[in-house]
C-alpha cells in the first residue's frame, strides 16, 4: 500500500503558548485566494474548466469542411472574447449590489465581494486587529462576557490557516479565531458570522477541538474554555442566529450523547482517527457542560472600540494604537449584510 504523503508544514506549532506573528493574518489571506479560487475568479476551478470546454465545443460547431478546423489562436481568441464578456456582465453599478453568480469576474469585482461580503476576509482582518491589540484591551473586552478572565492575562492568537490545521493535526475542524492565555490556562474561541447561521454541530466541533488540543499537550490540561459568537445585529427581525446559547449547549450535549454518533466530527478517516475522536468524548462532554457561551453583534463590537478611540489622546505616543482601531472600524463600516439590508456597523 502506497504511503500517504504528509502535507508540508510551513509553521510548526508545538504549543499554543508560542506566539505567532500578526502577519499570520496575511497567511490566512493567502489561503483564502489559493484554496478558494472562486473568490478570485467568480467560479470554481471545475466550473472554469467546464466553461472552457463548453466554449471550445461551441466554437467547433461554427466551422465546416470548407473553413476547416480552427487553429489554436482562433480558439484562444474566441475563449478570450467569452471571458471578457462574462467579466463585463459581472460588473455592478452600486457598491452593495447583489453579486451575479455563475460568471467570471474582474479583479475589481473580486475585491468588492471579498471586502464587503466575505466572512473569511473579515476573519483575517479581525485576526490581525486582535493580534496587534494590547493584552489589557483584550482582557477588558473579554471580561465583559467572561468574568473568569484575569486582568494580567497575555493572549496568543491563532486564526484559521493551513499552517494551524496541519501543525495540530485537527483536520475535522475549521475555526475562526482562538485566543489562548497560557499563564491563566484560558482558551477563548471566537466564531465570526456573516449572513450565515451557526451549523448544527458547530459548538460540538469546537468542544472536540478544545479536548483534542488538551490531549496533544498543545494547551494546558483542564483549561477554562469559553465560546463567543459575533454576528449581525441580533435585535433585527430577520436575525441570522436561530438558537440561543442555552439551546446551542443543549443541542451539542444531545448530539454527543447520541449512540449513533452521527453528529461527531465527520472529516477524520480511518479507524485510528475515529478511535482518537471517540477517546475525546468524556472530556468533550465536560467542556460542553462548563463552557461559557455568549453572543454579541458587530454593531456592539464596533461601538465598544469606537468609545475607546474617541476617548484616547491623539498624540505621537498613541499614534499606532489610534490608527489600528480607526482603520479596523473604517473597514467594518464597509461590511454589508444582504440578509438584513444594512451595514454591519454604523458609527454615530
Please characterize this protein's 3D structure:
The protein is built from 14 helices and 7 strands. By secondary structure, the chain is of the alpha/beta class. The chain folds into 2 domains: 24-34 and 118-337, no CATH class; 43-104, no CATH class. Strand 3 (186-192), helix 9 and strand 4 (224-231) form a beta-alpha-beta unit. Helix 13 (298-311) packs antiparallel against helix 14. The longest helix has 19 residues, at 72-90.
pLDDT averaged residue by residue: 86
Gross morphology is: globular
Report Rg: 24 Å
Q: What's the domain count?
A: 2
**Helix fraction bin:** 40-55%
The amount of beta strand, in percent, is 5-15%
What is the helix tally?
A: 14
The computed structural class is alpha/beta
Task: Give the SSE order as H and E letters.
Answer: HHHHHHHEHEEHEHHHEHHEE
Are there runs of 5+ residues with pLDDT below 50, and where? Answer: none
Using DSSP, what is the number of strands? 7
Characterize the main sheet.
Answer: 5 strands, mixed
**What oligomeric arrangement do these chains adopt?**
single chain
Instruction: Write out the strand line-up for the largest beta sheet, numbering strands in chain order.
Output: 1-2-3-4-5
What are the SSEs and their pairings?
Blueprint: H1 24-35, H2 38-41, H3 45-60, H4 72-90, H5 107-117, H6 119-132, H7 135-143, E1 156-159, H8 162-167, E2 177-181, E3 186-192, H9 202-215, E4 224-231, H10 245-256, H11 271-279, H12 281-290, E5 292-297, H13 298-311, H14 319-332, E6 336-337, E7 342-343
Parallel strand pairs: 3-4, 4-5
Antiparallel strand pairs: 1-2, 2-3, 6-7
Helix pairs in contact: 1-6, 3-4, 6-14, 9-12, 10-12, 13-14
